[in-house]
Every structure is written in C-alpha cells, then in structure tokens.
C-alpha cells in the first residue's frame, strides 16, 4: 500500500489581460515638442521675465537675507546670551514655491522661509524684525498677519511682493549648510512644521521630465 499520495498541482487560471483605454502615452520626444509649443504660447502672454528682472529678484532675496542676519546679531546682543557669539549666529532665508521651482510668472510674488535660532520667540520676528523692515526705504506696505494658520509677513520690496514665514531650529545658531529636510532640527514641530511644510514638498524628485512640469506649472499663474 502506498503511504504517499500524489498531490495534483493546482494551476491558477490565467487572468484576462486588462484593456488600456485611450491613446498610448507620449514619448519623451513628443512631450518635449508639446512643451516647446506651450512655451511659445506663454511667451505670447508675456509670462516670462527678462534676465534683468530675474537678477533683480535674486538681489531682493539677498538683500532680505542680509537684513535678517543683521537683525539676528542685534537680537543676540539685546538678549545678552553669554554662550552665544552674535557674529556666528547665522540665519538662513529659503525661497520656496513657484520662485524656488523656477516657474514663477512675470510679476509673481516670492515666498521665503526665514530660519532662525531656537532662543528667539515667534513674537520677536513679528514685532522686532517687522519694525526693522518698516524702517527700510525699499520696503512698502508691510503687514504682519499673525492670526493666520501659517503666520506670515507680507511686504513689497523694491516693487516685488514678498511673503515671509518664520521657523526656528533647535540650535543656537543656523549654519549656512544646515539641511532643513531633517525634521529633528525643528524647535517646536507642531508650530514650525506649519511654516516649513511648503519647503518639504518634493515634486521635482517624483517627475521624470522636470522641464515639462515647469512649463505646465506656468499656467497656474495665468489667471
């Protein structure tokens, strides 16, 4: 008598091939050709800024960073912390949004994240730094909106609209090379993540054709 019985192997039934509706996806060459056509349309709408205007935008960002760092040094001296060297406190401005992605339309505003050390209070930014901004002749129409979900300072700097948000890191200084994608740097994660969340958006890393993404993104500002 055979003690082992031969087991019949079960073969899974083949699944019917799923139908794909619509036209086939475009090739990379076709995408680039369509993107170039859209660029010509955008040029006809006057969406692109000249090189002079782009350099002016970079100058404005650099000027704001200088003012922010000057203010941090002033705050260090005012608070008189013995273990903090004012000249080494640092400070960092991080543009984000359409300006950072390189898809800002002509005349669009610039969104900027101001990163300061942990010994500061948020109220310092919205009182003392805003006061410093108002004393600059290049700055007009400064408004501090502290009650917003993401508190923001709105202003016009040499004719360019600026939105400033503020976040602190859990350090007494902000080095230039600090990696803001590390959330353990944040001083108060609940509050600071509201301001830093736009910076963490990694759309560019998920797109296989960045130039096409940028071209289509211009249309978001046409209205």
TrEMBL record:
Region of interest: Disordered: 5-27
GO cellular component, one term: nucleus
CDD domains attached to this UniProt entry: NT_PAP_TUTase (cd05402)
Coiled-coil region: none
InterPro entries: NT_sf (IPR043519), PolA_pol_NTPase (IPR048840)
Poly(A) polymerase nucleotidyltransferase domain location: 27-192
A Pfam family recorded for this sequence: PAP_NTPase
Origin: domain of life: Eukaryota
PANTHER family membership: POLY A POLYMERASE (PTHR10682), POLYNUCLEOTIDE ADENYLYLTRANSFERASE (PTHR10682:SF10)
Protein name, UniProt field: Poly(A) polymerase nucleotidyltransferase domain-containing protein
Organism: Eleginops maclovinus (Patagonian blennie)
């Amino acid at each position: 008598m055979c003690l082992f019985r031969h087991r019949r192997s079960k073969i899974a039934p083949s699944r019917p091939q799923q139908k794909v509706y619509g036209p086939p996806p475009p090739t990379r060459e076709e995408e680039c050709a369509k993107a170039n056509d859209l660029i010509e349309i955008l040029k006809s709408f006057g969406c692109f800024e000249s090189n002079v205007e782009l350099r002016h935008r970079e100058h404005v960002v650099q000027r704001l960073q200088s003012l922010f760092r000057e203010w941090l040094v002033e705050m260090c001296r005012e608070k008189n912390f013995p273990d903090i060297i004012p000249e080494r406190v640092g400070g960092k401005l991080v543009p984000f949004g359409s300006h950072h992605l390189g898809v800002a339309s002509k005349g669009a505003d610039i969104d900027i994240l101001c990163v300061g050390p942990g010994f500061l209070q948020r109220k310092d930014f919205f009182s003392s730094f805003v006061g410093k901004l108002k004393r600059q002749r290049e700055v007009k129409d400064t408004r501090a909106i502290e009650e917003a979900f993401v508190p923001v300072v709105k202003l016009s700097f040499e004719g360019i609209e600026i939105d400033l948000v503020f976040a602190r890191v859990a350090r007494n200084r902000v080095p230039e090379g600090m990696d803001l994608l590390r959330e353990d740097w944040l001083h108060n994660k609940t509050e600071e993540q509201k301001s830093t969340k736009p910076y963490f958006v990694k759309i560019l890393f998920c797109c296989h054709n960045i130039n096409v993404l940028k071209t289509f993104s211009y249309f978001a500002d046409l209205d």
